[in-house]
Amino acid sequence: MLKCFTIFKDKSKSRRGGRSAPEMRNKETSGNNRATKSTGSISYSKSIPEMYREKHHNLRVFSPSELKEATNGFSRLLKIGEGGFGSVYKGRIRPPDGHGDTMIVAIKKLNTQGLQGHKEWVAEVQFLGVLDHPSLVKLIGYCAADGERGIQRLLVYEYMQNKSLEDHLFNRAVPTIPWKTRLQIILGAAQGMMYLHEGLEVQVIYRDFKSSNVLLDKDFNPKLSDFGLAREGPEGDRSHVSTAPVGTYGYAAPEYVETGHLSSKSDVYSFGVVLYELLSGRRAIERNRPVMEQKLLDWVKQFPADGRNFSMIIDPRILNQYAPTAARRMAKLADSCLSKNPNNRPTMNQVVEILQQSLQDSESGTSTLLRTSESSTFNDIVASDKHLKKMGVGPSTRQIPIAQRT
Ligand SMILES: Nc1ncnc2c1ncn2[C@@H]1O[C@H](COP(=O)(O)OP(=O)(O)OP(=O)(O)O)[C@@H](O)[C@H]1O
Ligand SMILES: [Mg+2]
């Protein structure tokens, strides 16, 4: 697991309170305060905390004893994961009225020693209390209690039977996922991110797109999780918000790490990294490989999408089932997502469109290797594809220009 990084620590102190979530009224600790927009005075129609209050959502408020009981006292036997926030347990909760069947859930317990913390916990509750999409994990409720034994912050989610995309791509003890399922997963994840960027009154920048945050339900439907770092995007014509860079090494966009300028295109960059992880079955950074192979994005540059050795990047576990046309299309898409200049990166809407085409390529079983002509921007890919579609040219004979590799 790659660790999250915080280059500048947030000094804002949380206000301690009772069992519910009084902190959510405190903008200082909201996790998405928008004090540092790249312009002066900007008025918002609605902020996430406001939407959260208005929605009168149905999040359940759990007591510490309920969640202790649900996890057999946070038994190590029920621990299913560990991240920067703390440990994750499988648990069983009773229905709100105490009658009827119990329900299996995942319970995340804040590690009070951790770098991430209360602020992210509040952001997670607020964002997931407002957001609603089939490709986002469902938050069932939370627990906040402060007492002699310190602060307790927990989150209760729907249980994802198939863990995360990370587990299936990189953990040799977990069965791998076939080519078509990989495509469906990445398309679903892209649709989730498109919803965040374009489907709400406010734009939401996810800020932590990585394979461990793509959870998989019993049918391998992807669900984005972990909104602790999410932020509201810039308003109006502004290109970015300025913020202390936080995220995960290997996934964060270079301009964001260097300048703190955050935009939806930072998420698109992270998406490009995960696309290459999905194609190659390799992690963004793998310290136990030869030096030349440790950084996935450097390694794949040797095997360009239009080159004859492209298949070298394909995960050996799916070599006999992948569709080369779709794979090359996806590698080009990844390259455009990874463009150095954020403006040259596609929108998630465009990403979804290309992935749908790739899925069609895979479904039609085409294995034609595309010869490519010269071009450098993502718009060319979209434009040429649309143009060819209009002309009635099927996916197997489409030509896709090369996207710039940065
Ligand atoms: N709702 C859930 N259902 C089932 N398993 C889950 C659920 N949420 C998390 N997990 C498991 O717990 C693991 C740890 O999750 P967590 O989000 O705490 O950390 P992470 O994503 O690995 O790292 P980071 O904290 O840096 O984001 C996940 O990879 C997944 O296997
Ligand atoms: Mg996570």
From TrEMBL:
Keywords in alphabetical order: ATP-binding, Kinase, Nucleotide-binding, Serine/threonine-protein kinase, Transferase
Residue span of region Disordered: 9-41
Bias (Polar residues) ranges: 29-41
Keyword ATP-binding: yes
Transmembrane segments: none
InterPro entries: Kinase-like_dom_sf, Plant_Ser_Thr_Prot_Kinase, Prot_kinase_dom, Protein_kinase_ATP_BS, Ser/Thr_kinase_AS
Residues that bind ATP: K109
Domain Protein kinase: 74-359
Gene Ontology MF annotations: ATP binding; protein serine/threonine kinase activity
A Pfam family reported for this protein in Swiss-Prot or TrEMBL: Pkinase
CDD domains found in the cross-reference section: STKc_IRAK
Signal peptide bounds: none
Family of this protein: Belongs to the protein kinase superfamily.
Record protein name field: Protein kinase domain-containing protein
